[in-house]
TrEMBL record:
GO terms for molecular function: amino acid transmembrane transporter activity; protein serine/threonine kinase activity; symporter activity. It is found in: Cell inner membrane. One of its GO terms (cellular component) is plasma membrane. This is Serine/threonine protein kinase. It comes from Pseudomonas fluorescens. Keywords: Amino-acid transport, Cell inner membrane, Cell membrane, Kinase, Membrane, Serine/threonine-protein kinase, Symport, Transferase, Transmembrane, Transmembrane helix, Transport. It is a multi-pass membrane protein.
């Protein structure tokens, strides 16, 4: 198997360009697509969870944001790039670890991503229902009907294909960045510094570590765009050959820099505007920070703009995560021995996604609870730990061994998973 993979890679290297081309529109589209996948429900709930922890935990999380997200996603990209040309993440796992391990990782990959679709389904339904009730003063339709129409609409976009999804997300990113930046700047005169009162009270080391420990899974989830990494890596290898790792790292670093700067400015602006009691109220209402701000301010511009921004953010993240979730489910169906035709497989996957997302959105479970106990930790297993294990064991990834970033990524992954165990047993 390794010899076959090496021969394919050698032939591909021979056909690859000698030098890496300059940055182009295709790279910008992917950069914005990655940004768009990550900025969604997690980001819109991050100010609530991070702000409740106090000032110092928020500062530490801000310092960890870029290295934590960049090194982890770079590792997963390199893992997919280490496989045969055209192989997605499920194929690469089977190639490196065997059929049984491939089936297990494919199952974990699916369960790392699919709950995110459920989270977005709940968040989208709550955002639209709150907008209808508080801003338009219209009684929302029954929750079951509203969630069904919203999810069906997003799945209609999915039917247009992967390239259309990526382009749609990249187009939506431009107005979203402007709107998010506008909102963060608008909040500056409303900063009351409530959280700064905790700055003079340095928490005990044990309390600080405990707060960070439970906050890291939410941070992992908030900056996560692992579901689209497989498609991203496959496309980079097809386009750049032996230079795929270098160009992928450039795209990832720019996407993460944009992501971290924008998100942290927005987070700090929200946290400095609202008191800890108001953040707790937003958490209890199961609303994103944008929907809560819309209901909090009397300014009609903010009241209408904030929910619309939340709608766009959650919608485009849903689309990006659907790519990964459908990829994982298709892999599970194929590995189970059943091999329906491509069109039939697409219909089966779409029907399953529609029904389950609709049921969960109707039931309205706690979004932050789902992030803390399912989303962040399970993502950490796939995004942080699996690529680091592959670097240690897979010959094709041996050149990445011995880097300090590997230790850092592994530590963050273990912290996120241990937080899950604690939250389930506490």
């Amino acid at each position: 198997m390794n010899d076959q993979a090496n021969s394919v890679e050698q032939r591909f290297e021979a056909a690859a360009p000698a030098e890496l081309s300059s940055w182009n529109r295709h790279d910008t589209t992917w950069m914005l697509g990655l940004f768009g996948t990550a900025i969604g429900a997690g980001t819109l709930f991050l100010p609530i969870n991070a702000g409740l922890g106090g000032f110092w935990p928020l500062v530490i999380l801000a310092l960890l944001a870029f290295p934590m997200t960049f090194y982890a996603h770079r590792g997963l990209t390199r893992f997919v790039l280490s496989g045969r040309e055209g192989a997605d993440i499920t194929d690469v796992v089977e190639q490196h670890f065997g059929i049984k391990a491939g089936a297990l990782i494919t199952l974990l990959y699916f369960f790392a991503i699919f709950p995110i679709l459920l989270i977005y389904s709940v968040g989208l339904t709550n955002t639209v229902a709150s907008f209808l009730e508080h801003q338009l003063h219209i009684t929302p339709p029954p929750r079951a009907l509203l969630s069904f129409v919203l999810i069906l609409g997003l799945l209609a976009v999915v039917r247009c294909g992967e390239q259309v999804i990526v382009k749609a997300m990249s187009l939506m990113v431009y107005p979203f960045i402007v709107a998010l930046l506008f909102l963060a700047v608008y909040l500056i005169p409303h900063w009351n510094g409530g959280i700064l009162t905790t700055a003079s009270q340095v928490p005990a080391p044990s309390a600080l570590l405990h707060t960070l420990w439970l906050a890291i899974p939410v941070m992992v989830f908030s900056f996560n765009h692992s579901p689209i990494i497989s498609a991203f890596a496959v496309d980079q290898k097809r386009r750049y050959g032996v230079h795929a790792d270098e160009r992928s790292s450039q795209i990832l670093s720019r996407a993460h820099l944009l992501m971290v700067v924008m998100v942290l400015f927005f987070v700090f602006s929200c946290v400095l505007t609202l008191s800890p009691e108001q953040l707790a109220e937003a958490k209890a209402q199961n609303l994103s920070i944008l929907s809560y701000l819309a209901n909090h301010f009397s300014n009609p511009t903010i009241a209408f703009a904030a929910p619309l921004i939340a709608f766009v953010a959650i919608s485009k993240s849903f689309l990006g995560h659907y790519i990964g979730a459908s990829e994982g489910l298709k892999g599970l169906i194929v590995k189970s021995g059943k091999r329906p035709g491509a069109k039939a497989l697409d219909r089966i996957v779409a029907a399953f996604m529609l029904v389950v997302c609709w049921i969960v959105a109707t039931l309205n479970p706690s979004i932050l609870g789902m992030i803390e106990t399912i989303g962040g930790p399970v993502i950490a297993a796939i995004l942080f730990l699996m690529p680091m294990y592959a670097i240690r064991k897979v010959p094709a990834m041996a050149r990445y061994r011995g880097q300090m970033s590997n230790v850092f990524v592994t530590a963050v992954g273990l912290v996120a998973i241990s937080a899950l165990i604690y939250s389930l047993t506490a």
